[in-house]
Amino acid sequence: MKMAALDAEDLIVLSSLLEGARFNVSDMTYQSREQRFVTVLTRKDDPSHSPSIAAGLHFDRVTKVQSISLPPRGSNTALTLIGIMFNPAEPPSGHVILAFEGDIAIKLTVECLEVALSDLLPKT
Fold it and tell me: What is the pLDDT of residues 76-96, one digit of tens each?
């Protein structure tokens, strides 16, 4: 599956598809020169019985990354996503919040919404 989110409504759909996805802290990185936040995750295509699918998720035009209660980057701690939200600032900029179980969050300050999700292996 490939999907892009370019506005708040798209992000709501993407968030619903990724609810319950698992992220490893060690797989998250901010590429400041490219203004990109990148992570690998595992998601369920059909939560009731399919195996997990590895996917890449990236946010472009990111100018700042902040975290709340995030374990150290070197840890292999797995996080479960609750949802992804967009809080607008001066249009088209704003803040993307990735909320995880355990009161953990990542806040991305973005110039505008440019998000892409892509499965890393084709579905068999």
Answer: 899 999 999 999 999 999 999
Q: Which amino acid does the sequence have at 62?
A: V
**Could you tell me the pTM of the whole model?**
0.91
Please indicate, yes or no, if residue 124 is contained in any of the structural domains: no
Question: 47-74: per-residue pLDDT in tens?
Answer: 566 678 999 999 999 999 999 999 998 7
* Number of domains comprising the chain: 1
Parent domain of 40: 2-119
Tokens 């990542």 belong to residue: 106
Give the CA-trace dihedral at 43, 103, 72, 118, to 10 degrees.
20
